[in-house]
Write a structure and sequence with these properties.
The chain is 65% helix and 10% strand. It is an alpha/beta fold.
Length: 605
């Protein structure tokens, strides 16, 4: 029941469609009962032709009284005009069947809307949550696992809804309605049947719990398989370069075997529900044949009513079977919802205060005061003090792991500091509106993050009402216009996944054009030229020089020749500032910067 409540909570925002589906299902059930109910009086007329109908009334139940009166009325019509009676019942049967099937279609029609709208809502909630989660979440979680949850687990929930939605409130109503009529026909016979039902329900409930446990393990195995596949595709070049295709193939086969085995177990357990329920139903039917037959022999129930009773009972087999199949699917869906909840309940960490301050410009400076930061238990920054005045260029240098990029991630508040203060114009950045804060900044990183879209859309990147002349001008300033116009479709050229159809230098210039179009006040350049050849670096460096004119700039540098004009250079080692000053001063001091510069200069010579 708990699993059903979780599904119902997802559906409730679309309760109008639940109501419409319920109404048409109810009409369908009533019409179905009516068509089956017409069989009994005709059997009575065929068996007795209306004779001795009143003989059992005095000894009968309220059903027998009503039933006999109805038979008497129908028998009068038959005796006066049999052809008319036959036509009347035939037409009534056709009309009832049309109503039943039309209602069935309409119930399914609204069920499709309900199911797909609910899945759409879940997808949107999870994607919106992923966009709100901090960068640290994606460092800890595997991308393939998240994709698996959005694909495989989403399908599990959709299948669960598809098979269980209607079953969980249509089939019970159908069972109750049919059982009520059966009880009305013969309370004694129906009570005998009801005693046997809890046995089936108990067996199916135990089966459902087992399926939920195995289903969660199966989803995790499929997630591992998806993650391995995603990583293999991303690293195909290095896999081939090192000749480890067989190694990766064996690992994939191992994960695939585990996933397949668990998937088979889940499906095999689920497939048990239907034969178990059907077997139990047949056992009950056999008992009815024996017990009800004795009631007919003893005159406790009319033979035609008993046949009609058995016909109605046989109709219960389908909803019971559907209901028994729905519970395993419901548990599979519930296990996928558990995995969704892990995302939806993840700590967002980077939270705004209740009334954040707006910020639309930097007036004075960015300051880091005694800033300390760690990734878990690993201390990365210790007592960092940096001031970046408005319009100045500050460079961070140091060996790998010294904390340069971490400082670049703290300024746009991708992470929150553990202690100290990070201020813009004397106010903590945690007091500002996050969207406003990041709108001030343009970030160009070592790896240009582009998308499988046109060049124009990668430059515009979500901005609205952008004039063509504006993004063309941004491309020109980024030294990208020439190669763009030489490409197949100019600005409408699709550049492939992660910009794979472009060279490294071209991708970087597109990223710079994207930053230029936003006209940011603060620039964060994270080793933006370190992965380029000399010719590409020259073009990109010219574009970067155009980009940083008049802007407050934080440069995370790998090639020290690109930062000689910086207003201040800060040298980091193991998360601490060990030296700072301009290029000339640091070279004269012949300290850590002097050694780094000569090492890089000799390496590039």
């Amino acid at each position: 029941m708990k699993s059903f409540n979780r599904i119902l909570k997802l559906l409730w925002p679309h309760k109008t469609f639940i109501g419409l589906n319920f109404i048409f299902n109810l009409i369908q059930i009533i019409a179905g009962l009516f068509t089956i109910g017409l069989v009994m009086p005709f059997l009575e007329i065929l068996f007795k032709n209306g004779e001795s109908l009143k003989a059992n009334v005095s000894n009968g139940s309220s059903f027998n009284i009503l039933y006999a009166d109805f038979i008497q009325w129908l028998n009068q019509i038959v005796q006066s005009d049999k052809t008319y009676a036959l036509a009347l019942v035939s037409i009534t049967l056709i009309v009832a069947t049309v109503i039943k099937n039309f209602s069935r279609y309409m119930a399914l029609y609204f069920l499709v809307i309900l199911r797909l709208k609910s899945i759409k809502t879940i997808r949107e909630k999870i994607y919106a949550k992923l966009l709100r989660l901090p960068i640290s979440y994606f460092s800890n979680e595997r991308k393939g696992d998240i994709i698996s949850r959005m694909s495989n687990d989403m399908k599990e929930v959709e299948w669960s809804m598809n098979s269980s939605l209607e079953a969980l409130y249509k089939e019970p109503i159908m069972i109750i309605a049919y059982s009520s009529v059966l009880f009305f026909i013969s309370a004694k016979l129906t009570l005998f049947v009801i005693i046997l039902f809890p046995i089936a329900a108990g067996i199916i409930a135990i089966l459902g719990k087992s399926i939920r446990r195995k289903s969660k393990r199966n989803n995790e195995a499929q997630s591992s398989l998806m993650t391995f596949l995603e990583e293999s595709l991303g690293g195909m070049r290095i896999i081939k370069a090192f000749g480890v295709e067989n190694f990766f193939n064996k690992n994939y086969q191992t994960l695939n075997d585990k996933s397949t085995e668990l998937n088979m177990k889940v499906n095999q357990r689920g497939d048990l529900a239907s034969p178990i329920s059907e077997t139990l139903t047949i056992i009950v039917a056999g008992a009815i044949l024996w017990f009800g037959g004795n009631m007919v022999i003893n005159g406790e129930i009319e033979a035609s009513a008993y046949i009609g009773y058995f016909g109605l009972f046989s109709q219960l087999n389908a909803p019971i079977k559907v209901l028994s199949q729905a519970f395993p699917m419901l548990e599979r869906g519930a296990s996928s919802l558990d995995r969704f909840d892990e995302i939806l309940n993840a700590d967002e960490k980077i939270n705004e205060i209740s009334n954040p301050l707006p910020i639309h410009e930097i007036k004075e400076s960015i300051q880091l005061k005694n800033v300390c930061f760690s990734y878990g238990s690993k201390q990365v920054l210790t007592n960092i003090n940096i001031t970046i005045p408005k319009g100045k260029k500050i460079a961070l240098v140091g060996s790998s792991g010294s904390g340069k990029s971490t400082i670049g991630d703290l300024v746009p508040r991708f992470y929150d500091i553990q202690s100290g203060a990070l201020l813009i114009d004397g106010i903590s950045i945690s007091d500002y509106n996050i969207k406003n804060l990041r709108a001030l900044m343009g970030i160009v990183s070592q790896e240009a993050i582009l998308f499988n879209d046109t060049i124009a859309n990668n430059i515009i990147f979500g901005l609205e009402n952008v004039k063509q002349e504006d993004f063309i001008n941004a491309a020109k300033q980024a030294n990208a216009y020439e190669f763009i116009m030489q490409s197949e479709n100019g600005f409408e050229t699709v550049i492939g996944e992660r910009g794979g159809k472009l060279s490294g230098g071209q991708r970087q210039r597109i990223a710079i054009a994207r930053a230029l179009l936003r006209n940011p006040q603060i620039l964060i350049l994270d080793e933006a030229t370190s992965a380029l050849d000399n010719e590409s670096e020259k073009l990109v460096q010219q574009a970067l020089d155009n980009l940083r004119q008049g802007r407050t700039t934080l440069v995370i540098a790998h090639r020290l020749t690109t930062i000689q004009d910086s207003d201040e250079i800060i040298v980091l080692d193991k998360g601490e500032i060990i030296e700072q000053g301009n290029h000339q001063t640091l070279m004269e001091n012949k300290g850590a910067y002097y050694k780094l510069y000569n090492m890089h200069h000799d390496g590039n010579a």
